[in-house]
Design a protein that fits this description.
Blueprint lengths: L1 H20 L4 H13 L9 H11 L2 H11 L6 H22 L4 E3 L2 E3 L1 H25 L7 H22 L6 E13 L2 E13 L7 H24 L1 H4 L9 E2 L5 E5 L2 E5 L4 H9 L25 H4 L4 H30 L4 H24 L5 H23 L11 H31 L1 H27 L16
Antiparallel strand pairs: 1-2, 3-4, 5-6, 6-7
Length: 482
């Protein structure tokens, strides 16, 4: 009975870890899933994604502030920090329910102030979670990391599933309305006819308000799971800073649950560096790609993996990482609407939802078959870059891209986005796995380059979309591709 009870307890802890990890990027990914619907109602229109990308980059003040405070304090600040950011996420999602479409005028232009402000808080939550959640996970032994990363995968997968179930309703329709107004001038009555054009957007299966409410409920589940991991007495016994943990002379930590031996957190030569570097993850992008797979388990003795990288190798891989993040976290998300919406709402909807699913899928593939050589990483990067060039060309030719009106137009557009997400995620996670073996300093460089690339992509693309207006939206009342 003790063995069965211990196994059930561990399964319960794993489930809590999974639900806790789910909060990492759940809400901002949910916002991206809603963009195919929201862009039809907010004044920024198709350019809304570029604003969201920029807001996400600004939100990196969160992990920076956490790191600075953590550096100058001897207390564990991650536990109160995690409570604060998850609660902020819940409140922000609840406020989006009534206020997501509330606008105001800024410098004479109508802006989505409520939506972008609340998205800023959601981005702050998710960016900060990249460091604070992993800092909290240092309380638990390494076997508990796997269910945590599974939960991070769900932070992209679950919003995508909810988005697919929601749908987009259909493509916008142009409706011409006629109004007649009678005006009396002296003894003469004059009928004046007014013509007004309205756009009709078919409703999805359930509304944006319901979707954000579901996001808030999922975050509440994560909040409860985190509270149990912190305060449940039986779980507190397996915290690594607990006095009941037995430490042997070799440095191994054997954690026991009641009378049953659960696991040994022994530290080998191959494990030392990765163990101390997990908290350096600070990916600030829309979809949090590398967090799903960089915990990859490497085979001991695999010389192709465990050998140290030369300076040239590091510079080469960091350059590819910077380029990958510049595209995936900055440039391409900002113009996604212009490459897909000309083909209709369904194309944009599928590109976003299925594209998010490619992130955990690619990370899982890397776990089994990582790109171990510089040549393989380079080839994958080149192919992914060529795909991104095709997507960029579609955006430049909006609102009448190639194969406009043909069924192959949206098929190729959506497929190119899925390949783009899959290949670049594969590249970034493979590079992250190689740097993880290098140790803490290497991963800090990896995280720093990730931030730099993402920031450059967002800053460069924003004026192209919102100042130079080189990308054009369509008008449902004119010729369309659907």
């Amino acid at each position: 009975m003790e063995v069965k009870d211990t196994k059930a307890f561990l399964n319960g802890v794993h489930a809590l870890m999974c639900m806790f990890g789910m909060a990492s990027w759940l809400d901002i990914n949910g916002v991206w899933v809603q963009l195919p619907i929201i862009v039809n109602y907010l004044p920024e229109g198709w350019a809304l994604a570029s604003y969201l990308v920029l807001v996400t980059q600004i939100a990196n003040v969160g992990p920076i502030a956490f790191s600075i405070v953590n550096r100058f304090t001897f207390k564990r600040i991650e536990i109160p920090t995690n409570y604060i950011i998850i609660i902020i996420g819940v409140v922000s999602c609840l406020l989006l329910v009534p206020f997501w479409d509330t606008t105001s005028y800024v410098n004479g232009k109508e802006r989505s102030t409520a939506f972008l402000t609340l998205c800023g808080f959601l981005a702050l939550v998710d960016c900060t979670s990249s460091v604070s959640f992993l800092a909290f996970m240092s309380l638990f032994a390494k076997p508990f990391m796997s269910p945590y990363f599974v939960g991070e995968g769900f932070s992209a997968f679950l919003p995508s599933v909810l988005g697919l179930l929601q749908g987009v309703g259909g493509n916008p329709e142009c409706i011409n309305n006629t109004y007649v107004n009678s005006t009396t001038i002296g003894n003469i009555t004059v009928n004046i006819t007014y013509y007004e054009t309205n756009y009709h957007y078919p409703a999805p299966r359930y509304s944006v308000e319901v979707f954000f409410l579901l996001m808030a409920l999922l975050l509440c589940t994560s909040l409860v799971s985190f509270a149990l991991l912190v305060h449940l007495p039986r779980i507190k016994k397996i915290h690594l800073d607990n006095k009941k943990a037995d430490v042997d002379a070799g440095g191994a930590v054997e954690v026991r649950v009641d009378n049953g031996l659960v696991f040994s957190n022994s530290t080998s030569v191959d494990d030392k560096e990765p163990e101390e570097t997990d908290d350096s993850k600070t990916n600030s992008g829309v979809h949090n790609e590398k967090d799903y797979g960089t915990c990859g388990k490497q085979k001991a003795g695999d010389k192709r993996i465990t050998k140290y990288l030369s300076r040239i190798d590091r510079a080469y891989l960091l350059s590819l990482q910077c380029w990958s993040c510049c595209l995936t976290n900055g440039i391409m998300p900002s113009i996604q609407a212009y490459s897909t919406l000309p083909y209709g709402n369904y194309a944009y909807h599928l590109a976003v939802t299925l594209g998010l699913m490619m992130i955990p899928t690619a990370s899982l593939c890397v776990h089994w078959l990582p790109a171990k050589s510089n040549l393989s990483v380079g080839i994958l990067s080149i192919v992914a870059t060529l795909v991104s060039f095709y997507i960029f060309s579609l955006s430049l030719t909006s609102p009448y891209p190639p194969l406009c009106g043909s069924v192959w137009g949206p098929v190729l557009s959506v497929t190119s986005w899925l390949v783009f997400y899959f290949l670049f995620t594969y590249v970034k996670v493979s590079i992250g796995g190689r740097f993880r073996v290098e140790g803490r300093t290497a991963l800090i460089w990896y995280g720093g380059v990730t931030q730099i690339g993402s920031f450059i992509g967002a800053v460069v693309t924003f004026p192209l979309v919102n100042v130079l207006y080189i990308f054009k939206p369509n008008d449902p009342c004119e010729f369309t591709c659907y």
